[in-house]
Amino acid sequence: MASENIITINGTEYPFEPNETILEVAERNNIYIPTLCHIKGYTPTGACRMCVVEVKGARTLLPACATPAARNMVVETESERVVKSRKINIELLLSSGHHNCLTCEANGNCRLQDLAYRYQVETVRFPETPSKYPAETNNAMIIRDFSRCIMCGRCVQACNEVQVNRAISYGYRGAASKIVAIGDLPLNESDCVFCGECVQACPVGALIEKPRRFQARNWEESVVKTTCPYCGVGCQLDLHIKDNKIVRVTGTEEIPPNYGSLCVKGRFGYDFVNDSERLRVPLIKKDGEFREASWNDALSLVAKRLEDTKSKNGPDSISVFSSAKITNEENYLAQKFTRAVIGTNNVDHCARLCHASTVAGLALAFGSGAMTNPIADINKSEVILVTGSNTTEAHPVISSYIKRAVESGRVKLIVIDPRRIELTRFSTMWLRQTLGTDVAWANGMMHVIIKEGLYDKEYVESRTEGFDELKKMVEKYNPEYVSNITGIPAEEIIKAARLYGNAKPASIFFAMGITQHSTGTDNVKSMANLAMLCGNVGVPGGGVNPLRGQNNVQGACDLGALPNVYSGYQQVASPDAREKMEKAWGVKNLPDKPGLTVTETVEMAGKGKVKALYIIGENPLVSDPDLNHAEECLKKLEFLVVQDIFMSPTAKLADVVLPSASFAEKDGTFTNTERRSQRVRKAVDTPGEARQDWEIICDLSSRMGYPMAYNSPEAIAEEMNSVTPSYGGISYRRLEKKGLHWPCPTEDHPGTPILHVGQFTKGKGSFYALEYIPPAELPDKDYPLYLTTGRVLYHFHTGTMTMQSEGLNEMVPECFVEISPEDALDYNVKQGGMLRVKSRRGEIEARANISDKSIKGSIFIPFHFAEAAANKLTNAALDPIAKIPEFKVCAISIENI
Amino acid sequence: MPDINSGPKKEITPEMWGEVDQIIDKYKNKPGSLIPVLEECQYVCGYLPMVLQERISKGLNIPGSTVYGVVTFYSFFTMVPKGRHTIKICLGTACYVRGGKANLEVIQNQLDIDVGETTNDLRFSLDSVRCLGACGLAPVMVIDEDVHGLMTKEKTLDVLEKYK
C-alpha cells in the first residue's frame, strides 16, 4: 500500500508517509519552499501564505505547510502563479509597518529580506502603513518593535507551544492586530519569563535582544557552540562573538537536549563573562589587604604553604573543594591533585549540598546514582510525578518538555510540592505535603498500590529484593495515618497512588525538595521504592530522575571530586581501584580512607583539624547552611586559597586568590543531568592574566614535585577516559556534533540513554523499608513558621554570575520573603514591607512578597542573595549517610520592621 | 490601543464576584469554554475589566494573554463599562447620506466620548451600527430600546436630555 503513496513535485515523483505535509515531503527531498510562519515540528498555522504552492485541480493556491500530501497529487512549487502570489505577499508585508534594513539587527539574517531578494521585489507598489504601536524598550532584555512585525505568529507559537510559557497571544483585530501579553501590558509586567524563545523564532527584526542593539551586524559575529554554564539541563548554545565579547546568545537548533530553547539565564545571563569586576591578576593578602602578585609568586606561596601544612600536620589536614562549574577534565585533575600530590581523599564539591543524598540513595537502591532516563523520555511517559522540584524556575527547559507533554494530552502530571509552583497549573493532581514528610506520602502511595494490587508483581519478583520488608513497613501507612503526618487528604493519596500505579510507564522527577533534608537519603530511596514497585526502572519513559542543579555537577561526581571515590565511582577503599590509580598516576600509597565532605571540612576547620583549604570555584560563604557558623569555621583556617572568576564573599577570606577562566574561555566537557557529556568550547580570551583552572592545577602540582604536563584539555580527557570505564568511549571526536550518555565504555559504544535495562547496575534492585522521621527542627512557640529555601528563575546559586546582568537584576533585584496571603493577614505584613526573619541560628532582613505560591504556615526565601543570606537561617542538621544539610526545613519567626 | 487603566470604572460587587465564580465553576475543565464564560461574565458585570479577566484566566487555567486576545478580538466584548443608557447611531447608507454622521459628531462633542466609550458619569455609552432596518426614518438613533427617527442635530441633543 505504501508504494502507492506517491506525490509529484515539480515533475518528479516522491513517496510520502501518511500525515506528511507537502512542505515536509519537499524539505525531505531538498526542494525549497519558502516559509515565514512555520515552526518545524509544531502545528502549522498557515498564517503567512508564503509557502503556497499550485496543486493541480485545486481552485486556489494551497499552503504547503498545512496541506497533507495525498496520492497522485501534482504540485508545482515555483510556477508563475505561485511566484506572482509570493511577490504580492512580500510587497504587502513590506508595506505594512516600517522595514528599514539599514539599522535593523536582522539585516543579513532576515527571512523577509531573503525572500525579497529571492523574488526580486525591488519596489513596493503599496503605500507604507506605519505601525499603530510604539516600540517597547522598557526592559533590559527584549525589544519589541511593532513596526517590523509581520504578524506571522511564530513568537506566539514559540511561547505557547514550544516553551509553553503562554505569555503572549494575538490581540485586537484586522489592521489593529498586535501581539499582546495579558492586558497588553509591557512584557516585564506580564507573565513573560524572558526565555527569549520568541526572539529566536522571530524571522524578522521585530524582536531583538536589547543588549545587542546597534552592537553587532550578523556578519560581524563569529559563532561558537558550547554548553550553558547554569543548571544541569546542559542546553547547547551558540555564543555570538564580536571583538572578544559575547554580544548575544542563541540556542543551538536541532540538537538535544534543548533543540534551540533556552531560559532567561542562558540567553541573557552572560554579562558576567565580560564584567569589569572579573579577577584579572593573582592576589596575595598581606596585613589584611590584597596585593596584586605575579603567578610565580602566588603559586610558589600556595605550593609552599600546602607543603608546609602537609609536612607539619599530615595530608589529611588539607582539603580541596572542587567545583560543579568547572569542566570534567578539571575535576579529574583536581581530585588527582588532591589524592596523588597532597595525599588525602579530602576532596568534595557542592553536590554535597544538593544531590549527595541522591548519589548515596540511588547507588544503594540501583547501584548508580544518576538520572536513569534521558530528558527526551518525558514524551514517552504516561504519568509524570514531579516532587520537590520547582522545575519551571530551576530547570526551565526541562519544564517545557513536561508542559508540552501535558498539553499534548498524552501525559498526566502529579505535582507533590509544598508550594503552589507554576507546574501546578498544568497538573492533574497537586498534593500539598507538610515540609519534610516525603517518606510518609511515598509509603502511603505504596500502601495503596500494594493493597490494590497495582504493583508490577513480575518485575518485583524477578528484578528486586527486599519487597517483603517494604510491604510490612508500609502496612501501617494507610491513607488516614499518612494524611495525619503529611496534611494531604487521604482520598488524594489514594487517587494519586492509583494514577501513578495504573500508568505504564510512569516517571519520577525530583530535585532539592527531596534531597536537602536530614532524611534526604531516605527520601531518595523512597522514590526508588515507588518506581521499582511499579516496574518503572529500566524502561523507556520511566525512571527515577534527579534533576541536577549545576551545569557540571554530574560530571564533578563522575570524575571523582568526591571523598570516597575516584572517577567512575571506583571506591578509594578498594585495593584494586587504588592499585589501578597508583599505576596510572605513577604514585605509591594512595590514601585508602574516604576523606572529608564539604560539610565535614567546614566543621573540622572550626575544630582546627583542617588547616589549609583550596577552594576552586565555590562560594560556601553563601551556599552553606548556618552561615554564621560556617564563617567562624573558615576563619580558623591557617591557609585558604580561592580560585574563582570573581571576588566572592569566600574569596575575601582567602590568603591567596587565583583568577580563573569562565566557561566561555575554556575547552573541555560538561556532563549534564541526563549523563550526557557535551563539549565546552573556548569563545573568548580570559581577562587580564587569568588562567584556565586546569593550567593552574597543573602548574601548582608541578611546583609541588608532581609534574603535570598536558598540552590541552583533550589530552587530559584521554587520560581521564582511560581510567574511567563509564567514560572510556567519550572522545572529543565523537562529541563534535552532540553529546553522549555514559556509560559509554568503548569508542564504538553508542552510549546508554537508559540505565538498568534488563538488570540493575548492582544486580537486583533493593527496596528499603523506611520509617518516617520528622525534620530536625519543627515550628514551635518561639519560631512558629516553617521556612523553606530555593531558587528563583532569574538567579543562580550564589548570584556571582547572574547578578552581573542588568536584565536579571531588573526582574528580581533583591531578596524577598514569600508569604501566603493568610499569614500576611495574621502577621499584619504589607506587600513590599521590610521583615526581619529569625531562626535559632541567625536573622536576615528582606522585603515581603505576598504570594499565593506559599501556603499558610510556610515561608519561602531564595538563597541567592549574600546581603540577605537565607542560609544564615537554615539548619545544618545533616543526613547521616549523605551528610547533606537540611536546607529545606527549619523553624523561623517573622516581624515587621 | 485603549488605555485599560483610564476611563470610567464600575465596581464589581461581591454578589457579582459570587456569580462570576459560579460561572467559572460551571465551565471549568470544559474545552472551548472561554467565550461562553466571557459572555456570561460580561452579562453579570456589564464589562470585562482586567481584574475580571485575571479571575477568569486563573479560574479556567487559560493564559491571561489568550483571554485578553479573545476579549479584544470580538467587538461584542467590552473592557469599558456600559453606561445606564446605550446610544446606537445608525451609519448605514441611508442614515449616513441623511446626516447620521453629523448627528454622531454632535453627540461625540456633547458627551466628550468616542464610539465604544462611556461617559465618566456612566450615563451614556456610545456605539455606531450599520442599518437598523428603519431606513424610512433615516437618520435613526436608538437609545436603549427606543427608536428615534428623522433626527437632526438639534433633535438629537433634545432626545438625550430625556435619558438621565
Blueprint (SSEs and pairs):
The complex is a heterodimer of chains A (897) and B (164).
Chain A lengths: L5 E4 L2 E4 L6 H7 L23 E4 L6 E2 L10 E3 L3 H16 L15 H8 L23 E3 L9 H9 L5 E4 L6 E4 L15 H5 L5 E3 L12 E6 L8 E7 L2 E7 L12 H5 L2 H4 L8 E4 L2 E4 L2 H19 L4 E4 L6 H15 L4 E2 L7 H10 L17 E5 L3 H4 L1 H12 L4 E5 L12 E3 L6 H14 L5 H7 E2 L1 H8 L4 H8 L3 H13 L3 E5 L1 H4 L4 H14 L10 E3 L6 H6 L16 H11 L12 H9 L5 E5 L3 H4 L3 H9 L3 E6 L4 H4 L3 E4 L8 E4 L4 E5 L12 H11 L9 H11 L8 H4 L4 E2 L23 E2 L18 E6 L15 H6 L4 E4 L1 H6 L7 E5 L4 E8 L7 E5 L12 E4 L6 E2 L3 E7 L1
Parallel strand pairs in A: 1-5, 15-16, 15-23, 17-18, 17-21, 18-19, 20-29, 21-22, 23-24, 24-25, 30-34, 31-33
Antiparallel strand pairs in A: 1-2, 3-4, 3-5, 6-9, 7-8, 10-11, 11-12, 13-14, 13-25, 26-27, 27-28, 30-37, 32-33, 32-37, 35-36
Chain B lengths: L13 H14 L6 H12 L4 H11 L3 H10 L11 E6 L2 H5 L2 H12 L12 E6 L11 E3 L2 E3 L4 H9 L3
Parallel strand pairs in B: 1-2
Antiparallel strand pairs in B: 1-3, 3-4
Description:
The complex is a heterodimer of chains A (897) and B (164). Chain A has 897 residues and is α/β, with parallel strands linked by helices. Chain A has five domains: 2-78, Ubiquitin-like (UB roll) (Roll); 127-274, Alpha-Beta Plaits, CATH 3.30.70; 283-354 and 558-602 and 636-741, 3-Layer(aba) Sandwich (Rossmann fold), CATH 3.40.50.740; 372-546, 3-Layer(aba) Sandwich (Dimethylsulfoxide Reductase, domain 2); 785-896, Barwin-like endoglucanases (Beta Barrel), CATH 2.40.40. Chain A has 30 helices and 37 strands. In chain A, the strands form ten sheets. Chain A has a seven-stranded mixed sheet with strand order 14-13-25-24-23-15-16, with helices on both faces. Chain B has 164 residues and is α+β, with helices and mostly antiparallel strands. Chain B has two domains: 14-73; 85-161, Glutaredoxin. Chain B contains seven helices and four strands. Chain B has helices at residues 14-27, 34-45, 50-60, 64-73, 93-97, 100-111, 153-161, and strands at 85-90, 124-129, 141-143, 146-148. Chain B is elongated, with a radius of gyration of 18 Å. The chains are: A alpha/beta (897), B alpha+beta (164).
